[in-house]
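Reopening this one. Same input as before:
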Amino acid sequence: QFLLSCMTGMRISDVVNLTEANIQKSEIVYVAQKTNTIVRTVNNPITEQLIREKKNLSFSLYNCNLLIKEICKKANINSLVQVRWGGITEVGEKHQFVSSHDGRRSFATNTFEETNNLKLVSELMGHSDTKTTESYICITTHDTSQVREMFGKLNFATG
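Same output, byte for byte:
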């Protein structure tokens, strides 16, 4: 489930509803539960195999999140981090804060780094506003002005 989210940008709540009927050649086409909009995202042999083998149905969201945290802990993703959730700052090992939604962040970041096309990433994730997509892209830099400047200079082709 997490791999499908990382490779397609889909929410886990949408991943669990995928069937072979959603596979349309090089795309996965589905109606996003959260927004009730039709989304077209990427398909490849791995995503297709996972869907055909019904690997998207393996775990509940709760168990999926527990397993992701456990895998990250075993992989020593344990650097001390500070995160802010709902106005509250928490400090802990990084694996404690990993969740299924990080698959979408991973997809957004990797796809943007590969294409440098924010509009494309936004469309593949089913976002109607690129500002939403910007919040998913995690670029590690000490100078955040570089990131703001980069987003400000981007020109997007319409189409």
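So the earlier flakiness isn't reproducible anymore. For the record, The first strand starts at residue 23 and ends at 24.
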